[in-house]
Amino acid sequence: MSSLAWLGLGLGMTAYALATFWGWHLGPKLGARPWVRSQLLLLTCGIWLELVFFDLLPSTQPTLMGILGFRMATLFSLILFFTPVILMSGLHSFVGWAPSGRLRLGAFTLQNMLEGVLIYSLCRVNPWLGTAYLFLTAPHALVEAMTIRELSRPAKAGTWLWLVFGNLAWLGLGFVLIEGMGSLISLAVFNQLMAGYLFYVAFVDLYQEVVRQAKRPIIPYAVFLGMGLMGLLNVLV
Fold first, then answer.
1. What is the pTM of this model?
2. Where do transmembrane segments lie in this chain (predicted)?
3. pLDDT tens-digit profile of 189-210?
C-alpha cells in the first residue's frame, strides 16, 4: 500500500480506538440505543458514499459493489462465502446464551479477532475502502465496549485499555496472517470472503443490534438486505 493509504488506515484505527474509549466511559450513562442508531446511520451513509465516489468514478481498485459482484460459481466459492457468515453468527449467538461470563467474554474476544482479520483482508483488497470501513464502524466499537463492560463486571481499572489495544492487536494479527499467506491466497478468495462478511453484517449483525431494538421498522435496513441478497445471488448465479 502507498504511504498515504497507510496513513489513512492508521487514522481509521485511531478513530476505532477512541470510539472504544468513549463507549467504555460514556456507555453506562447514555445507554446503547443512541450508538446503535448512529452506527446504522453512518453505515448507510457510507454505502451511498461508496456507490457514488468509488463506483461512479474511475478506479483501478476493486470496490464494494465489485467485491459483491464477483462471480465464482463453484462449491469452493460457496464454502468461502458462508465461512465468515457461520463463524461470526455462531459466536455472536454464543455471546448471548453462554452459561458463564468468562465463556461469553471469550467468545466475544474470538469474534473480535476474526473481525480484525476480515477487516484487514478488506484493507488489502482495497486500502481506501478498508479505511472508510474502520471510520464508519467506529460507533460499533462503542457498543462493543459497553458489551464487554457488562460481561466483565465488576469492571476492573484499565480494562478499556486492554480492549483498545486488543482490537488493534487483532488487526495486527490479520496483517501477519494475510501477508504471510499472500502468496498462497488469490485476490479472488479475498473477494469471496469479503462478500460473505458483508452478508453477515447485513443479515445477522445489524438485525441483532438494530432491528431487534427498534420500536418501528427502520427503512435504511433495506439497503443492507439488498446488499446481502446481491452478494449471495452473485455467488450463486
1. 0.42
2. 35-54, 75-97, 117-136, 157-178, 184-206, 218-236
3. 555 555 566 555 555 555 555 5
